[in-house]
């Protein structure tokens, strides 16, 4: 990933794109985001995100997330995956997590359960 590269992952189920996750590098900063269709299983979303974060933290020491303040579901989701609130403005909350924090967080009971769940899905990251 060069100076301003992005990597996009399509989540495909039964030959249909049901969501996507992206990793964006801008200078020395990495950020991520995701979108899934409303009817997608929360188990599948969590499994995909777990595997994605494993991928992302092989490339980045620190990962940022930008979430609209009104999107409480997304904020809670990011907190569940160990992201830490840094600051907010009138529109966005800024969260962050580093590789060491992720390595510790993924040892929690919930993350272990999600890691196990991810094994029941066929999740491939093609590079």
Detailed description of the structure:
By secondary structure, this protein is an alpha+beta fold. It has one domain: Gcn5-related N-acetyltransferase (GNAT) (Aminopeptidase, 3-Layer(aba) Sandwich), CATH 3.40.630.30. It has helices at 42-56, 72-80, 99-105, 109-118, and strands spanning 6-13, 16-26, 29-36, 62-68, 84-88, 92-98. A six-stranded mixed beta sheet has the order 1-2-3-4-6-5. The longest helix has 15 residues, at 42-56. The termini are close together. The mean pLDDT is 90.
Structural class: alpha+beta
The total beta strand count reads 6
What letter string, H or E per element, gives the SSE order? Answer: EEEHEHEEHH
CATH fold-level assignment: Aminopeptidase
Radius of gyration, rounded?
14 Å
Overall domain count: 1
Biggest beta-sheet profile:
6 strands, mixed
User: Which residues form runs of ≥5 with pLDDT under 50?
Assistant: none
Which percent band covers the strand fraction? 35-45%
Coarse shape = globular
CATH class placement: Alpha Beta
Which superfamily, in CATH terms, is the homologous superfamily?
Gcn5-related N-acetyltransferase (GNAT)
The CATH architecture category equals 3-Layer(aba) Sandwich
User: Helix segment count?
Assistant: 4
Distance between the termini: 12 Å
Q: How would you state the average pLDDT, rounded?
A: 90
User: Going across the major beta sheet, what is the strand order?
Assistant: 1-2-3-4-6-5
Oligomer: single chain
Helix content: 25-40%
């Amino acid at each position: 990933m060069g100076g301003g590269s992005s990597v996009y992952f399509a989540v495909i189920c039964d030959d249909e794109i049901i969501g996507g996750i992206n990793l964006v590098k801008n200078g020395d900063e990495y950020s991520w985001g995701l979108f899934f269709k409303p009817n997608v299983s929360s188990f599948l979303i969590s499994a995909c995100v777990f595997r994605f974060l494993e991928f992302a933290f092989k490339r980045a020491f620190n990962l940022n997330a930008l979430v609209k303040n009104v999107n409480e579901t997304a904020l809670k989701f990011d907190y569940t995956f160990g992201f830490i609130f840094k600051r907010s403005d009138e529109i966005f909350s800024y969260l962050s997590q580093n590789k060491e924090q992720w390595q510790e967080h993924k040892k929690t009971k919930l993350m272990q359960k999600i890691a196990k769940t991810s094994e029941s899905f066929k999740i491939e990251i093609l590079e």
